[in-house]
Design goal:
Largest sheet: 5 strands, antiparallel
Number of strands: 5
Number of domains: 2
Helix content: 40-55%
Number of helices: 5
Radius of gyration: 20 Å
Strand content: 15-25%
Length: about 170
């Protein structure tokens, strides 16, 4: 039981580490895949914390604490398993190369002191991808000249991690 709590607390620390590492400007595909794996592992490890609390406190099944802790633990396990399955699918099947028409590029600003702004491109099919600053500025300049920009994306379909962007 105490080991479950320690593993759950380690998952919370991994979530904090993920938050710090995600704020860096490195946008390579291998780094993004590492971050996705770290996030899935942190979710799965954190899910043990509420379950350890249930085992420690031994609440009645009719108590609110039991139900909130149970649903929190089950939700974290489900979310972590889903993220892990998406990552494993992408690693197993590899990246996909597909043509898109980009209709918008926008910058989402966060009010954090260390930055944390991120950039999105939106396709005519309704898909949105997170890109780095350099790619965002290049697409923004090209969209100033034409309303729709044809690009070729090499990306992982489940996690939407971009490997390469080729513009005409």
């Amino acid at each position: 039981m105490t080991y479950m709590a320690y593993i759950g607390f380690t998952g919370i620390l991994l979530m904090a580490g993920y938050g710090v590492l995600a704020s860096f400007k490195v946008r390579s595909a291998s780094y993004q895949l590492f971050l996705q794996g770290l996030w899935a592992l942190a979710l799965l490890m954190t899910s043990l914390f509420p379950l350890a609390l249930i085992l420690k406190e031994r609440p009645a099944i009719s108590s609110l604490f039991f139900w909130v802790s149970s649903f929190t633990g089950i939700g974290l396990i489900s979310w972590g398993a889903f993220e892990g399955c998406c990552l494993l699918y992408d690693l197993w099947h590899g990246s996909r190369r597909q043509a898109f028409h980009v209709i918008a590029a926008r910058r989402v600003e966060r009010s954090l002191r260390h930055g944390g702004d991120y950039y999105l491109i939106e396709s005519a099919r309704g898909m949105s991808f997170e890109v780095d600053d350099y790619t965002y500025q290049a697409i923004q300049r090209a969209l100033g000249q034409t309303p729709s920009l044809p690009i070729l994306l090499d990306y992982y379909p489940k996690t939407k991690i971009i490997v390469e962007v080729i513009m005409d």
